[in-house]
């Protein structure tokens, strides 16, 4: 018992965290981790909370949450319960959905001063490696789980990553700890459970050092990936634009091997799940090299890779706001749909709009179909579709720009232009854009 605590304490001492958050499912690994952290907290007086993610997938979910809070109270550590809902129509596997929801819930508790502690162990690492091997992953996937890295605004640590499940269970029994047994862990329809019950026991019985070999291979793959990233960083910066788009011309000057690695590093930097080699090839051949008059796109889960003006963009799939409309009143804040931010009409220091007599409100829409306008400084009106092209607005943004209307006339396309007939000094339009819109810009 003391050996395991000494190893975990050593890892924490090296990182010198200001605050700890424990991912606490209630399973044996996180139960042991909480026990170890409680001892460390007592000795070092470091702030610590635990977070239990309630997926609602089991009939026992409420019971588990209550039990985790009770165990936390016994250890003197507050347990926060985060309830999440999984979207079954996204096309992702239930395992992936639960994992994504869990990490999103945990991230809410991590700031720049926080070290998130996760209970994954050596058996988990073997399973992760074998799953990556099954998918035909390269060094990035085969690197599996890192013991230490960045997470949300802070950092994460997996202090039990070299400890076997058997050793963790032995610790729990010696410390007289009880834990949650998730019945879904016995369901071998899930790939990870199939490996756990039918594959890794056979491998480790035949080769007792298999765990250590997997760990070495994962570390070597991680080192190789880090080296590639370092060697290609200068080339990536040359291809990368301020809006996080990637230059097709720079990519075209590279070899196929370098180009593929740059595409993967670009997507990784944008925190997009790694595509398969087939998808990487499709990004280049079907999107980047599509006909110049085409509007190509490739769907990668909830993201799309698009091309515009010889640049590749990776954006979240756009939504159709054609039917959305709302009234924008003077000195009131209007919340736009889908986290596109807020819009405000007010008098200020940078007034550029005139209010027609008798009008103190406008209508906001997103559908440019059939609308025309004459921007300030120009003569003659043109269809908004043509104006968007002239202003260099990517096709996926054209139905995400708020259009301000007065009766049947376009007052302004916010962030783009004001119509000549509404140019004045009465008020201004203030668009507080969301992070999501900025990321897709």
From TrEMBL:
Its EC number is 6.3.4.19. Keywords: ATP-binding, Cytoplasm, Ligase, Nucleotide-binding, tRNA processing. Pfam families: ATP_bind_3, TilS, TilS_C. InterPro entries: Lysidine-tRNA-synth_C, Rossmann-like_a/b/a_fold, TilS/TtcA_N, tRNA_Ile_lys_synt, tRNA_Ile_lys_synt_N, tRNA_Ile_lys_synt_subst-bd. It is an enzyme of class 6 (ligase). ATP binds at residues 25-30. It is found in: Cytoplasm. The keyword Nucleotide-binding applies. Gene3D superfamilies: 1.20.59.20, HUPs. It catalyses: cytidine(34) in tRNA(Ile2) + L-lysine + ATP = lysidine(34) in tRNA(Ile2) + AMP + diphosphate + H(+). GO terms for molecular function: tRNA(Ile)-lysidine synthase activity. HAMAP family: tRNA_Ile_lys_synt (MF_01161). Ligates lysine onto the cytidine present at position 34 of the AUA codon-specific tRNA(Ile) that contains the anticodon CAU, in an ATP-dependent manner. Cytidine is converted to lysidine, thus changing the amino acid specificity of the tRNA from methionine to isoleucine. Belongs to the tRNA(Ile)-lysidine synthase family. This is tRNA(Ile)-lysidine synthase. It comes from Vibrio porteresiae DSM 19223. The gene is tilS.
């Amino acid at each position: 018992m003391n050996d395991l605590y000494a190893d975990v304490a050593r890892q924490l001492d090296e990182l010198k965290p200001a605050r700890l958050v424990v991912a606490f499912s209630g399973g044996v690994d996180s139960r042991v981790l909480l026990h170890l952290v409680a001892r460390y907290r007592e000795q070092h007086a470091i702030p610590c909370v635990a977070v239990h993610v309630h997926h609602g997938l089991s009939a026992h979910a409420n019971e588990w949450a209550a039990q985790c809070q009770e165990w936390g109270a016994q250890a003197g550590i507050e347990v926060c319960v985060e309830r999440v809902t999984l979207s079954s129509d996204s096309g992702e596997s239930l395992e992936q959905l639960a994992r994504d929801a869990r990490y999103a819930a945990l991230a809410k508790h991590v700031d720049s001063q926080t070290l998130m502690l996760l209970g994954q162990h050596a058996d988990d690492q073997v399973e992760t490696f074998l799953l990556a091997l099954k998918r035909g992953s390269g060094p990035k996937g085969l690197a599996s789980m890192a013991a230490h890295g960045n997470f949300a605004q802070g950092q994460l640590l997996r202090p039990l990553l070299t400890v076997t499940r058997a050793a963790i269970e032995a610790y729990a029994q010696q410390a007289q700890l009880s834990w949650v047994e998730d019945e879904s862990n016995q369901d071998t329809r899930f790939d990870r459970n199939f490996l756990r019950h039918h594959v890794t026991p056979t491998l480790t019985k035949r080769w007792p050092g298999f765990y250590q070999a997997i760990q070495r291979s994962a570390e070597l793959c991680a080192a190789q990936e880090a080296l590639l990233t370092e060697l290609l960083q200068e080339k990536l910066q040359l291809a990368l634009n301020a809006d996080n788009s990637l230059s097709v011309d720079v990519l075209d000057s590279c070899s196929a091997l370098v180009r593929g690695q740059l595409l993967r590093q670009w997507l990784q930097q944008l925190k997009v799940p790694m595509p398969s080699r087939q998808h990487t090839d499709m990004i280049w051949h079907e999107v980047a090299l599509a006909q110049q008059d085409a509007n190509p796109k490739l769907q990668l889960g909830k993201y799309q890779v698009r091309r515009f003006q010889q640049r590749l963009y990776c954006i979240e799939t756009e939504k159709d706001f054609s039917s959305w409309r709302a009234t924008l009143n003077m000195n009131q804040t209007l919340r736009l749909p889908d986290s596109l931010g807020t819009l405000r009409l007010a008098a200020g220091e940078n007034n550029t709009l005139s209010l027609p007599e008798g009008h103190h409100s406008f209508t906001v829409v997103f559908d440019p179909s059939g609308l025309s306008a004459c921007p300030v400084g120009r003569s003659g009106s043109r269809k908004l579709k043509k104006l968007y092209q002239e202003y260099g607005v990517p096709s996926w943004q054209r139905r995400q720009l708020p259009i301000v209307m007065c009766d049947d006339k376009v007052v302004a396309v916010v962030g783009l232009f004001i119509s000549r007939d509404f140019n004045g000094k009465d008020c201004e339009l203030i668009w507080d854009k969301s992070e999501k819109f900025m990321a897709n810009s």
